[in-house]
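Q:
Got a chain?
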Amino acid sequence: MERKKIRIGIIGLGLMGREFCSSVARWCHLLDEMPIPVIAGICDKNKDTWKWYTDNFPEIGLKTDDYKVLLESSEIDAIYCAVPHNLHEQIYIDIITAKKHLLGEKPFGIDKVANENILKTIKENPEVIVRCSSEFPYFPACQQLIKWLKSGKYGRLIEVRTGFHHSSDMDLNKPINWKRMVEVNGEYGCMGDLGMHTLHIPFNMGWKPESVYADLQKIAESRPDGKGGIVPCKTWDNAVLTCKCIDPKTGKYFSMVVETKRMAPGATNNWFIEVYGTEGSATFSTHNPKAFNYLTTNGKEQGWTRIDIGSQSAIPTITGGIFEFGFSDAFQQMIGAFMQEFSNSSANPGFSNVMPDETHMSHCLLTAALESHASGKRINL
C-alpha cells in the first residue's frame, strides 16, 4: 500500500526553513511507515531566498511572496512556519482558520495576549493539528533521560535545572538583528526565543511552575546597526528564573531553575537539563551529546555513571546504532513526531512536539518573569 503524503508549504525561508527541507530530502533515512512530507510550496517576501529551494527542490509547485496564496491552495495540507515573533499571531491564526495543519516556531505569539488569541483559534478548529517546534529532546541520550524520568527513578525531586546558553552575542561588534529588537522579538527578549526549548521536557513531565522569581540582564546596551551607526539594544540578554513546582508523581514541591542566556562565555549552542532527586539524578547536555549521565543514591557516597548513547533514536533510522547523532538528525526526528500525528495507526507516537497548551504555560511563566524582575518580588502564577 502506498504511504500517505502530506503536502507541506513553508512560510519563512531562512535558516530553519532550509533545515526543514533538508530533513524532507533525506526522509528515506527514517525506518517508519508514517506519512511522507512533500515540499509543495514556499513563501517569503524576500525573493532572493527562493533560489536555494528551487535549485534543490525543482518539483515545488507554488512560489509566492504572499502566504495567503499557500493557504488558499488545495495543493497544501500543512504549513511549517518560521517567521519573527511579531508575525506569529496573524499568520498562525490565518493558517489554522484556513484548515491547514501547523508546525510553528516558538514562542507562538510575541506576548501572552497574542498566544491566547492563537489558542482561541485552535479551539475553534479542533480538526487542525497544531504543534510547536522543539528539537533538542530528540537526541538519543536525552530520550534515555526522558525514559529515566518517566520511570520515577529520581525518588523525590530536589531540583531541576534546565537552560539554553549562547555566546555569539559576546561579540559586541555584532550588528543588531530582529531578535534584539523589542518591537519584533518582544519584551521577553532571550526568554521568548530560547525559553520553550528549556521548558519542553518539564512541561511534558507535568512540572508546572506555581511561582517565579526572575533575574534579567541587559548587558549589551547598544549595537552597530550594520549601516555605520549605533542603535539601542533593548532586549534582555540573559535570564535566570527560579520556579517553585510540584511533581505530580509525588505531590511534593521542588525548585526549578530555568536559564536562557545569549551571553554565556564559551557556549556556542548549549542546551541542557539536570535533574536531582533523593534516590537518583541524571543530566544531559548538547555539549556532550552522546552522554547520558546518572547516579543512584545509596547511602552517603554516590558516583556518576556515564553511558555513551549512539544513534538509537525514537524513530528508527538506517544509521547504525554505534554512529554519531547531530542537530540535523534531531530536527528530522522532530518532524517525524509531527508526521506521526497524521498516521492512521493508534500506536503511541512517542515523545510529542510541544503542545499548544504548553506554549500558553510558557507565556504565563515569561509574563510573570517580567513582572517579577520589575517588582523584585516572587510572582505566583
